[in-house]
Design goal:
Blueprint: E1 7-10, E2 17-18, H1 22-32, H2 39-45, H3 47-54, H4 64-81, H5 88-97, E3 105-106, H6 110-118, E4 122-127, H7 132-139, E5 148-151, H8 152-155, H9 162-172, E6 179-183, H10 186-194, E7 198-202, E8 215-216, H11 222-228
Parallel strand pairs: 1-4, 1-6, 4-5, 6-7, 7-8
Antiparallel strand pairs: 2-3
Helix pairs in contact: 1-2, 3-4, 4-5
């Protein structure tokens, strides 16, 4: 292993940014295109597509090409329920305009923390998402500070499986003990510690009062926590 500085792996959703609900995305996107669709109506339109999307038996996309197929199928289901299944121009426009990374909402503490930490650590994202997480990181404005994104659906293993952390650390070419995992899910932080990484739980809502390990409410606290380790 190299003698590179320490590294921090960040979870994405719930740690660095939030996502916008699909019905809000579709309401705004269709309204911009001249179709007045309120959020309540949009919620009904996306209900069947959401059920398909969240079905645990649905094969997960592991490449950008597969993600594009998913996006088209999702939009097509919405348009079928809107009675516009033959409006191919609208379908193509919505595939582009409703692409979820365009609608991410970065937490206000994320970018300042990344700027501060990038001077002393190598930063990366380890997410249980797919390749589109790279676009989400870019749209959120984090890419200059977080050049690497490890997506579980590409790696074939998810947090909290120790192999997910080991795969990322191996690609970083750094000792496990010099790597921190920052995540908003206790199971994922525990998995990191089981994989011999350091773990920090982000508890933005103060809902994990029984957590015994390192814990922060906001990312601005992270440099001090790591500095005390």
């Amino acid at each position: 292993m190299s003698a590179a500085p320490g590294a921090i792996l960040f979870d994405a959703l719930g740690t660095l940014f939030a996502i916008t609900a699909p019905h809000i995305i579709f309401s705004h996107a269709m309204t911009r295109l001249g179709y007045q669709v309120g959020e309540n109506d949009a919620a009904q339109l996306v209900a069947r597509a959401n059920a398909w999307w969240l079905d645990p038996s649905r094969p997960q996309a592991r490449s950008r090409a597969e993600e594009m197929v998913e996006r088209r199928e999702y939009v097509q289901a919405v348009l079928e329920d809107a009675g516009r299944e033959n409006d191919h121009h609208l379908a193509e426009q919505l595939v582009e305009d409703t692409y979820w990374p365009r609608w991410v909402r970065p937490y206000s503490d994320a970018l300042p923390a990344l700027r501060t930490l990038a001077g002393s650590f190598r930063l990366a994202v380890l997410t249980n998402g797919g390749p589109s997480m790279r676009d989400a990181v870019e749209h959120a404005g984090f890419a200059p500070f977080v050049p690497q994104v490890f997506a579980s659906l590409e790696m074939g293993v998810r947090k909290p499986d120790v192999d997910a952390y080991h795969t990322a650390v191996k690609q970083l070419d750094i000792e496990r003990q010099a790597v921190w995992m920052v995540d908003d899910t206790p199971e994922n932080v525990a998995g990191a510690e089981a994989a011999e990484l350091n773990g920090v739980l982000v508890d933005r809502r103060g809902q994990y009062g029984d957590w015994l390990g390192a814990c922060i409410i906001a990312l601005e606290e992270l440099p001090a926590v790591i500095g005390r380790a």
